[in-house]
Amino acid sequence: MLQLHYTATDVTNDVTHVGYKNPYRYRGYRYDTETGLYYLQSRYYNPEWCRFINADGFIGQIGGLLSHNLFAYSMNNPVNFSDPSGNRRIPSIMDLFEEVVFLIVSLLLVPAVVATPKLIYPLVGSFVDAVVDTISSSSVPSRNIASSSAKTESRATTKTKVDIKTKNKEEPVRIYFVAEATYPGAIVHKKQPLNKNIAKLRLEFGGDIYATTSDDAIYLCNMLGGAIGPTNDGNPKNAMHYHPLIYLDRAHVFFGTDPNLKFID
C-alpha cells in the first residue's frame, strides 16, 4: 500500500515531490501526469482548454442553448458545479451545505413565524409563505401512486373574497417522489415522498422527480419557468417525462403509469 505524507508547507511544483504520486487532485478527479488530463469516468478533461477533449454522448435540449456545447464542463460554471462522471453536472459541496443550512434554519424559525404572523409577515413577505408551505406540506403522508389523481381547481368567475377562499380550499396537495433515470426507463422510490418545494429544489439541481399526474409534472416544471414535453427523448424504452424550461441540465419529471417506470419500496 502506498502511503503519502504531507506537511503544512508542502509544495507540488517539483516532479520528485510525493504529491505527484497521488493521482486524485482537484475535487477528487483522477489526474494523468503524462497527458496532463483529468479522467472523469467517461471523458477526459483538459484544464488548460477548460473543456472536455471528447464530445458528450448526450445531445442538447430545446430551450437550453449552452447544453448544445458538447465539450463544455459544468455548463461553464466550475465554481458552483462539478462533473465527476463526465455526463452530468452536480452542485458543489458549498451549495449543498447552504441549502441544508437554509432548511434547518427554516425548521427552527417557522413555529415562531406562525405564532406571530402579523409581526413577521410584513418583514419577510412571500419568503415566509414559501417556508410555511414547505413545512406544512412535508407532513402530508404519501398517497397511493397507482390510484391517486390531482383534484381540479374550481373556476373562479369573479375576484370576490368568497371565490378566492373556495379556490384555496380546493387547491390540490401535490406530492412528488424521488426518481432516477436509468437510460432507458426510470426508477421511482415510493417511500421517498417530497412536497412541491423540496421537489423543486431537487429538480433545480439536476435530480429526477416522479409526479403522479401529467398536470402535477407540468406544475412543477412551471415553478422553474415552464415545461418541455412530454417526451421520451426519441427512445421508446424511455419513460415519458417533462424537462423544466430554464434548467440547462438533464433533469426529468416522470409521471403516470408508464410501463417503462419501475416502482420500488
Automatic annotation (TrEMBL):
GO MF annotation: an example: hydrolase activity
Superkingdom of the source species: Bacteria
Enzyme Commission designation: 3.1.-.-
Annotated keywords: Hydrolase
Listed InterPro entries: Rhs_assc_core, T6SS_VgrG/RHS
Alphabetical list of NCBIfam families matching this protein: Rhs_assc_core (TIGR03696)
Protein name per UniProt: tRNA nuclease WapA
Organism: Oxobacter pfennigii
